[in-house]
Amino acid sequence: MSNLIKLVVNTDAGFEALAASWRLLETQVPQLLPFQTYDWNHAWWKVFSDSSWYHKDELAICTLHDNGQLVAVMPLTNTHVGLHSLFIYRYVRPFGADPNLTEIRAPLALPAYDETILQQWEDLSRQETFGVTEFQVIHTKLHAEQFLASNAAVHPLQAREIPNFILHLDDSWPCFKSRLKRNIKESLRRCYNSLARDNLQLGLQVWQGAEAIKPRLNDFYALHAARAGATNTVEHPDYFAPPQHRAFMAALLDSDFANRMHLFCLELNGRVVAMRLGFDMGEELYLYYSGYDLQFARYSVMTTLLAEIIQWSYTQEFKRINLSVGEDVSKTRWGPSVTHYVEYQCVKNNAWRKNLGNSILKMRKLRRKWSEKKSD
User: Fold this and answer.
1) How far is residue 202's CA from residue 221's CA, in Å, rounded to a whole number?
2) Can you give the pTM of this predicted structure?
3) Where's the BioF2-like acetyltransferase domain (predicted)?
4) For a designed S-S bond to 79, which of 10, 91, 151, 161 qualifies (C-beta 3.0 to 4.6 A apart)?
5) Architecture label for domain 170-318
């Protein structure tokens, strides 16, 4: 017989008291994401939570317990803009409001409780008494759409789809390779042949845990910055340039999460030319950010590194490789499956809050365009 209890944890002590039960839940959830773990979220709160006289982040960790066991957890920040008791604007959103360090911010739940944990968004909306609250609902597209369809008190203002690409490792590397499309097969052939032609000996080093990764982290940052400076490929910023972002990585390496962390290094004649971070999530290897030496770009070293990681993953008996989010050819060419997540910006469903919420979104877009124009 089910005895379901909903609790909202809003103190640091209460957060830390969840550690053991949260980590136990991680072992029971299929396809666990790094961003759902206790250690990721605890490190994030320590580094990114903000508090000042006009802007205050508060904990609002929604939990479900069934017969005394933690079965779902959704870590939220309750951010007030204005005086705390008379806020003009409030933003309730999942942990991970950072520039793309936390890529997927879905709640952690046993499959039977996925929809139940989302119901707490409506519970939170009922607590609104003054000002406007913006709710950021994130989950797989199916569950998020079902929640909004059955909860009329929450109104979606806009949506952003988040595709997540996953490789399934069946059979063996030769079988996997045989099923690839012609273009990636040809690309792999050229990668390995070009190295042999120029007498470059390939090697893969895999470093695991804090003791092995910390001494090499600055090399990773340097290669990531070099990749961010490349102009003839998909462009992205240097995500680890801000000191706060490096502080977050340091916090992860000082936590139990460090045991999940792998740093993959592609060497040519003993020189490291490409790196990529990965996280061991049990049956799945989650591949995170990367970087490479632009002097070796003509050898397509990132394609080679991924091919080497896939082969290594077979030896480690991983069942899946998560290529992370964002649709680009470096992922889609491998023929992955896609899990669709969606992020909804919502407000309480009444006329003036919908109008004010839409006005705030328009102001944000204008500010973003102005910032982009200024940077150009």
Assistant:
1) 22
2) 0.92
3) 184-328
4) 91
5) 3-Layer(aba) Sandwich (3.40)
